Amino acid sequence: MNTHEILRQRFGYEAFRPGQEEVIRHILSGRDAIAIFPTGMGKSLCYQLPAYLLNGPVIVISPLVALMEDQVANLRKHKEKRVVAINSFLSKQEKDLALQTIDRYKFIFLSPEMLMQDGIQKLIQQLHIAFFVVDEAHCISEWGFDFRPDYLRLKEVFSEKERPPILALTATANEKVTTDITSYLQLRSPFIERQPIDRPAISYSLLHMENHHAKTEWIANRLITTVGPGIIYVASRKRADELAAIIHQKGIRVASYHGGKEQDERSIIQEQFVQGELDWICATNAFGMGIHKDDIRQIIHEHLPATPSAYIQEVGRAGRDGKKSSATLLYSERDIQKLKFIVYEDLPDDQQIRYYYSLLQSGISGKLAAEQSGLTEVAFRMLEYYFEHFDIENVIRQIRQIFQVKEHQIAEMEKYVQHEGCLREQLLSYFGEKLSVSNGDCCSNCHQLKEDWLIKTEVEQKVSNELDWKERLFQLLG
Ligand SMILES: Nc1ncnc2c1ncn2[C@@H]1O[C@H](COP(=O)(O)OP(=O)(O)OP(=O)(O)O)[C@@H](O)[C@H]1O
Ligand SMILES: [Mg+2]
Ligand SMILES: [Zn+2]
């Protein structure tokens, strides 16, 4: 069978989407590749399809359990039973069973942490892998609040001379991130396929607000008068719960979602949202990756995301069905300060690093040393990783470099909120992309956005208004 036949027979698609075929061809020829496609464009097919033309299993490294399960479900939908996801949510028994029968699988999903475990690494090295896939590969380069040192260690697994090709997938990667991916994974002159990240159907709004209170009011009113489904991104777990409670009181079907909730609860909320039983989610950045909901109409940011990549990634969850959608960023003066505080909190300064080091030298455990030098959990993980690889002076140098990158990204966000020209153009320029077609509803700086498609009809408004059960019953009975 050739690629087109598999595309039709196994996946039921008529044609490749732009870029897919090229990536697949290069992987089949044994070359490393990086595919940079916007959210929802079909990166998964780039590894799913060639798997059927090569011998041996495909290993997919994925950062989140939710993402893995989503991919597993997707493959099963296409009649593939030989899939397994090995992650921390398997019981010991389940995991042992999966590992004992590992050679039966065509697709093996692993978290980076799992892959780095000694036993698993050995096992993997005995399999004749067709190729490796690193999904959401920008995680390699996004240090900070979600620092995952094991992403940086992946190359240790790949290090043999005769290794299978590696395919890195991501929705957002500018030059810097592409370079990071190439060097951290030690890719060998990878084929790079980059599809435009602009999504013309999404209109951008930027609203300057006096303070927090004004934002809350705006959001409540917006949700009463305009349609969902939508996501409101907020800065903290506490705020997610708080805002969801306020909105809920207005009769809106909303739930909060963040890393502080149990996995079960998170799955339920996600499912309810996908099924249309919830219209809005108030979330931290923990929400969104791997959620297949095509009809999300609005993304609202109550806080300033830390990087343009994060912003475009979160906004990109809207309108995967290609229909009009809207992205609103609510900004108030102090947000830059808040963002700096959150980002820099996780980056230890020179003094802290030296103090931590001296404590280690005196024989104190890493954990205790971290506590005594006032490091956050993330900062601790980061230092632990760097001290394994570098001496003290180089650790300091590395952390300073990260600081500069962060500083640069925050400056880019600051530019965005102060930009007076086209917002879309400004955002795209960070990724080295030019504005292509001027779209009717571009952004709030280009012209007054009409967005009449967003307005709820009177009936819809009524329904979401706070009705007690009598009124509801009355309405039902006419
Ligand atoms: N050639 C194709 N023709 C039609 N539909 C396709 C094609 N390729 C992929 N799709 C569909 O596009 C949807 C999105 O694909 P996928 O999940 O791979 O996106 P993604 O690029 O990985 O996005 P994300 O960044 O959100 O992970 C899926 O429902 C998939 O079935
Ligand atoms: Mg994907
Ligand atoms: Zn514009």
Structural commentary:
The model has no long low-confidence stretch (mean pLDDT 89). It is built from 22 helices and 13 strands. It is of the alpha/beta class and 478 residues long. The strands form two sheets. The protein has a seven-stranded parallel beta sheet, with helices on both faces. It folds into three domains: 3-194, Rossmann fold (3-Layer(aba) Sandwich); 202-336 and 442-477, P-loop containing nucleotide triphosphate hydrolases (Rossmann fold, 3-Layer(aba) Sandwich); 339-412, no CATH class. The longest helix has 27 residues, at 392-418.
Give a brief outline of the structure.
The chain has 478 residues and is of the alpha/beta class.
The gross shape turns out to be: globular
Provide the residue-averaged pLDDT.
Answer: 89
Number of helical runs?
22
CA radius of gyration: 24 Å
Output the CATH topology of the largest domain. Rossmann fold
CATH class of the largest domain: Alpha Beta
Small ligands present: adenosine-5'-triphosphate, magnesium ion, zinc ion
Helix content percent band: 40-55%
Beta-strand content estimate: 5-15%
Largest sheet: 7 strands, parallel
User: CATH superfamily of the largest domain, called what?
Assistant: P-loop containing nucleotide triphosphate hydrolases
CATH architecture of the largest domain, by name, is 3-Layer(aba) Sandwich
The SS-based structural class is alpha/beta
Number of domains: 3
Total beta strand runs: 13
Low-confidence stretches: none
